[in-house]
Specification:
about 375 residues
């Protein structure tokens, strides 16, 4: 009997520690699940960010390739027209209108129309012959003594032969032959790339971004999207130190931006795509919210589990142990009142029958 008392006492002493172990294991499991979900979310966020970086660079790289190809075709075709025999004949011809001269003008006009058809962004192609006081283009066929057009041509000639320049909201690609000639000894060919259509091309990089085609100094630019003064100032500062391209995270006007850019070699231009981080990571923010919600659910489950297990497991076990302690003291009148119909109800019923049986035997003896 003494040994039984010691065993019961030991069991009673351990009743709370066993319950605490169960609670601890459950809490650790829930926290492990929450931690794994959090770490998985962080790893997923990094993968998605890297993917967005690569996507941004791929888009800007595609635009760079497209513009480089377009400019290279312009260079080759303009160079071919400058070397065309008809252009050379007009350079050396006098002002007399002859059949041969008219044929040369018609041939060059057709060549310029073909050049203008190479890309939808091209607005105008023209050939300026100072010695003949003549401008041939794909639009009006022939302009003589057009001083306004001549002034425009000489205006965008300030940036150097074979260079792209910004002029009047458009992009100009100008070449001359001979390269170091001047005045009446030159043939000057130019192509006007429509600035508005170029904006549509730039918008293909990222419709949510500010996409900019600019000079290396950021002084002249064509862009799509809303370019704020803060972003412009920040990109101008970047253009002074970064010339090789890449993706950077920068803060402009207290907002976080992703800036992807690449140079256009050898034209002395840069392409920028600047987008708010919030616009790029909107899906990531949803994942973070889901991760936080999962963690909150884990905490709620823990908080709900503890009182629930107390009511369902701990209290019924404690009640049963208390009854056994009374029985161990020799109280055969102990009885557990219950209304449960689960496993604990069965145990209570068996306990009551056992004590009743023991009481009967004790009285009979």
């Amino acid at each position: 009997m003494c040994a039984a008392k010691n065993t019961l006492a030991e069991s009673g002493g351990k009743k709370s520690s066993g319950y605490k172990k169960i609670i601890s294991i459950f809490v650790l499991c829930i926290l492990a699940v929450g931690s794994i979900a959090y770490l998985g979310n962080q790893a997923g966020e990094k993968i998605i960010r890297d993917g967005l970086y690569q996507s941004q660079m791929a888009n800007i790289g595609f635009c760079e390739t497209m513009l480089n190809d377009e400019f290279m075709i312009l260079y080759e075709q303009q160079n071919r027209i400058l070397k065309d025999l008809s252009a050379q004949e007009l350079l050396l011809a006098d002002d007399e209108i002859t059949y041969a001269r008219s044929a040369s003008i018609a041939r060059l006009s057709d060549e310029l129309k073909i050049l203008a058809s190479y890309h939808s962004n091209i607005k105008e192609c023209g050939l300026y012959i100072p010695s003949a006081n003549m401008i041939i283009n794909n639009l009006t066929f022939l302009s003589v003594n057009d001083r306004e057009k001549e002034a425009d041509i000489r205006g965008f000639m300030q940036n150097g032969n074979g260079q792209l320049s910004f002029y009047g909201g458009d992009l100009i690609f100008y070449m001359s032959q001979p390269r170091n000639g001047g005045g009446a000894n030159q043939l000057i060919i130019y192509t006007v790339i429509d600035g508005q259509k170029l904006k549509n091309t730039l918008a293909m990089i990222n419709p949510r971004a500010v996409n900019i085609l600019t000079s290396m100094t950021f002084s002249d630019k064509i862009y799509s999207g809303g370019l704020t003064d803060g972003v412009a100032a920040g990109l101008e500062t970047m253009s002074e130190t970064h010339r090789e391209g890449g993706v950077f995270e920068r803060t402009f006007s207290e907002k976080r931006y992703w800036v992807a850019f690449t140079p256009l070699h050898p034209y002395g231009l840069m392409i920028y795509s600047c987008v708010e981080e919030a616009a790029m990571t909107r899906n990531l923010q949803i994942l973070n919210l889901l991760s936080a919600a999962l963690f909150a659910i884990c905490i709620c489950v823990i908080l709900a589990f503890i009182p629930l297990t107390q009511r369902i497991v701990y209290r019924p076990v404690s009640r049963l142990i208390a009854a056994f302690e009374e029985l161990d003291k020799g109280n055969l009148d102990v009885k557990i009142e219950f209304s449960r119909k689960d496993e604990f109800g069965y145990l209570y019923h068996v306990f009551n029958e056992m004590t009743q049986s023991m009481k009967v035997r004790f009285n009979q003896s």
